[in-house]
Amino acid sequence: MLAVNYTNLRDNMKTYMDKVTDDYETMIVTRKDNKNVVIISEEAYNNLMENVYVMGNKANYDWLMESKKQLEEGKFFVQELAEAGENE
Predict the structure, then answer these.
(1) How far apart are the C-alpha atoms of 47 and 51, rounded to whole Å?
(2) Structure pTM?
(3) Whole-angstrom Cα distance, residue 46 to residue 86?
(4) Does residue 86 register a pLDDT over 90?
(5) Would you tell me which of 9, 70, 79, 80 could form a disulfide with 75, CB atoms 3.0–4.6 Å apart?
(6) How confident is the model at residue 40 (pLDDT cuts 50, 70, 90)?
(7) Is the pLDDT of residue 18 over 80?
(8) DSSP characters for the chain?
């Protein structure tokens, strides 16, 4: 995790944005009066929101945990999928 003050960020915006997107860094921008800001990439944000959605719905969470348990216990099978246009 990076921490940078507002002035340094402003002077080196491209460099810091590249670190966030290319190196998957999370950046804290420190400001006066502890009004700090966290910067993450759009990809990281989308992953976070998806996890919040899945984990925030009890039915989804329970289904996911049951599926995980079945996988860990070896209760799964592999299914071959036919390509579209095959067998026509």
Answers:
(1) 6
(2) 0.65
(3) 35
(4) no
(5) 70
(6) very high
(7) yes
(8) -EEEEHHHHHHTHHHHHHHHHHS---EEEE-GGG--EEE--HHHHHHHHHHHHHHHSHHHHHHHHHHHHHHHTT-------PPTTTT-
CA distance 42 to 70: 33
Contacts of 48 (CB under 8 A, 6+ apart): 40
Q: What are phi and psi of 82, to 5 degrees?
A: -80, 140
Angstrom distance (rounded) from CA 52 to CA 55: 5
Q: Give the strand order in the sheet containing 2-5.
A: 2-5, 27-30, 37-39
Cβ atoms of 1 and 24 within 8 Å: the answer is: no
In the chain the first and final C-alpha atoms are separated, in Å, by 54
